[in-house]
Specification:
276 residues; 8 helices; 13 strands; 2 domains; alpha/beta; Rossmann fold; 31% strand; Alpha-Beta Plaits
Length: 276
């Protein structure tokens, strides 16, 4: 294994994306976890005193900008700390489940909290509720990061859709970089999708979920799973009942002062849509 320097940064939400994007330009791989009110970024970088100095200056500016008391930068030399996913720009020999993402214009390179929550919920589904779903729909795939993660965890057939031509092209490139053959990327809106899925991923904003929640329910198998994210904390009590009143139950959720995400499962199937 290549010997990279692993740094661990503990940051509150306001500075998360800025630190992630700084590291993304430099790191060989990044993983993110949530610990109480803070996010934990683990980044693998080459040994470079100049990079560490630039990082320290950058973090210091963020502390002043957001009035954050402390953003500690730690060095982790342990080999056995479990890391579910590591997002990387290329094929590096790093711990964890690799997701190779080419930097692009689409939402979803891994640093946004809604993507973090989706990845955590995907891994929880894999770890705590085997077997992992065989068929998956990724609604609004962006860079394809969630579809790639689902494939890594064992999904057999994945349909990834997006209405943005740039996102579709970007997702296809990323899937090719990961050498995956079980993901079909389609340029369409969700109303054009047919069939049923064991798992649906919907990292979408509130206005979209308000419009398509019935279609999401229609596309779920009668014992299927749904991961929703991108929901504003202010509106989740309005959005989530659209699903819980139609036979789905919240199994696990994550939230911060701005965002909400949850994994739900059909417990009682009350959908008006016929099987088949």
């Amino acid at each position: 294994m290549n010997r990279w320097l692993k740094i661990v940064i503990k940051t509150p939400l306001p500075a998360l994306e800025a630190i992630y994007h700084f590291l993304w330009q430099q790191a060989r791989g990044i993983s993110i976890d949530k610990e109480e009110d803070d996010f934990i970024l683990s980044a693998y970088i080459e040994h470079s005193s100049s990079l560490l100095k630039r990082l320290q200056r950058f973090v210091h500016r963020l502390k002043r900008q957001y009035s954050i008391e402390d953003i500690p930068i730690l060095f982790d030399y342990s080999e056995d700390r479990h890391i579910p996913f590591v997002i990387t720009p290329s094929h590096f020999n790093l711990p964890g489940i690799p997701i190779i993402i080419e930097p692009g214009t689409s939402f979803g390179t891994g640093g946004h909290p809604t993507t973090v929550y989706c990845l955590k919920l995907l891994y929880k589904l894999y770890k705590d509720f085997p077997p992992f779903p065989k068929t998956v729909l990724d609604a609004g795939t962006g860079t394809g990061i969630l579809a790639i993660a689902a494939s890594r965890l064992g999904a057999r057939k994945i349909v990834a859709i997006d209405i943005s031509p740039d996102a579709v092209s970007n997702a296809r490139r990323n899937i090719a970089l990961n050498h995956l053959k079980n993901i079909d990327v389609i340029s369409c809106c969700i109303t054009k999708v047919e069939g049923r899925f064991d798992l649906i991923l919907a990292n979408l904003y509130d206005p979209v979920l308000r419009v398509i929640y019935e279609k999401l329910i229609e596309l779920l198998n009668s014992s299927g799973w749904l991961i929703v994210s991108g929901i504003s904390r202010a509106n989740y009590k309005e959005i989530i009942p659209h699903f819980t009143k139609n036979g789905l139950k919240i199994i696990k959720d994550y939230s911060d002062e701005k965002w909400y995400a949850a994994i739900l499962k059909f417990i009682q199937y009350n959908s008006p849509f016929p099987d088949g």
